[in-house]
Amino acid sequence: MGPGRSASRGNGLLLRQLFEPQSCTYTYLLADQAAREALLIDPGLEMASRDTQLVRELGLRLPYAINTHCYVDHVTGTSILRSLFPGCKSVISHLGGVKADLLIEEGDVLTLGCFALETLASPGHTDGCPTFVLSEHSAAFTGDALFIRGCGRTDFQQGCAKTLYHSVHQIFTLPRDCLIYPAHDYLGQTLSTVEEEQTLNPCLTLSCQDFIRVMNNLNLPRPQQMDVAIPANMRCKVQELPGSLPQQGPSLAEMEPVSPCFR
Question: Nearest to residue 72, comparing CAs of 226, 182, 222?
Fold first, then answer.
């Protein structure tokens, strides 16, 4: 399934994967087609009009707009969505110190018609990084904890390589055919599976000691959007108008010297 394409699962769940090219962020729309209830995972400010139009075109209600963590590379679209969809609640982990309507923790469940998302704590990129798992364990939305053949960086925002290593290996206890949907991808990949990442992920097939050594020596550049994104995202609202946001950062070609496995 490519970016922007719809997947209508046989059990009545609609899943749409949407892409924002500047920060290479995926936003996910999940909906119970019978109940007409939907949620968005990791909506961004730059694509809020796109997401709003899609929800309205499909005739859906939007009770939840979920952030998998406090981003440093883009500003959340949660505030706009809350203002446009009555009853929509912003959702984020209570461990991140971020303001939101609903603060969640490990074991909490968000219901969506007949479906549910279970919250699995997966800190390490930040303290407040949950993974959201469909209740039948067929898919996991891993945020910045686990990417396709990579993982999130651990050099700021309470990052800890050892913690992330153990968090990802907790994700690896899900069924081997469980689909992995990350928050970002920089090489045009759209999804993976638990089995693929267990066996093919070049950083997470290392020992914990070697993983920590690699993560502590990445020397990645500081995210250019960080000074704008963090203050806005800590409040789950927009502090600047979209037109006044600084340039989102280098293009994919300009980022070539940096490993795509870590962001």
Answer: 226
Residue 245: inside a domain, yes or no? no
Distance (Å, whole) CA 97 – CA 119: 17
Q: At what angle do helices 208-215 and 161-171 cross, to 10 degrees?
A: 130
Domain range enclosing 142 = 6-221
Segment 174-213, tens digit of pLDDT: 999 999 999 999 999 999 999 999 999 999 999 999 999 9
Q: How many CB atoms are located within 10 Å of the residue 179 CB?
A: 20
255 found inside a domain: no
Asked whether the beta carbons of 116 and 109 are under 8 A apart, the reply is yes
**Cα distances (Å, whole numbers) of residue 72 to 112, 222, 224:** 28, 10, 8
Q: Position 170: which residue type?
A: Q
Instruction: Kindly report whether the global pTM for this prediction surpasses the value 0.70.
Output: yes
Q: What is the CATH number of the domain that holds 93?
A: 3.60.15.10
Q: CA 258 to CA 262: how far, in whole Å?
A: 8
Q: Is residue 226 one of the residues assigned to a domain?
A: no
The structural domain count of the chain equals 1
Q: Are strands 6-8 and 13-20 parallel, antiparallel or unpaired?
A: antiparallel
User: What's the rounded Cα separation, in Å, for the pair 160 and 16?
Assistant: 31
